[in-house]
Amino acid sequence: DGWPVGPGGHLTQELDQSRLPAPAAPQQFDFHLDMRAPAIDPRLIHLRNPHPADYRLHDGALLLHGRQPLDDPGCGSPTMLCLRQAEFCARAQAVVRTADLSAARAGLSVFQNDCYHNDVYLSRQRDGTIAVGFARSVHDLKLECVRVPAPQAIR
After folding, report:
1. Would you say 77 and 51 are in contact if contact means Cβ atoms under 8 Å apart?
2. What's residue 136's pLDDT?
3. Is this prediction's pTM over 0.70?
């Protein structure tokens, strides 16, 4: 039927790159945050209005001082730094120092909003040991999928 039609005739699945105004930029999938920098990387964003005193770079590390758990209904501004996912598939890694771990949880979250996120984290238990956990929130269902004692190597 001759569809689709655009300026200059029928459209094809291939594009003549010589007609583009600039060469295509190479894709860059690697991303690294340097915590030895003088300021927190501006590519990191906050959820809601941050309390600046809760975010500090010190001795090559980012120190976060949490106020309230994210799933607390009264949580106005959780201590959380986010990075927008640029690609559908991604791999992330973080180092969490357990010697100073006093938070309920510290780790990584695949976060859509308050009601939809998956979290992998370390937490200090009441007896002082460290546990590794994975939790999922789907609307009002909050499920702790697993929490196990951390291997000796990360204590």
Report:
1. yes
2. 92
3. no
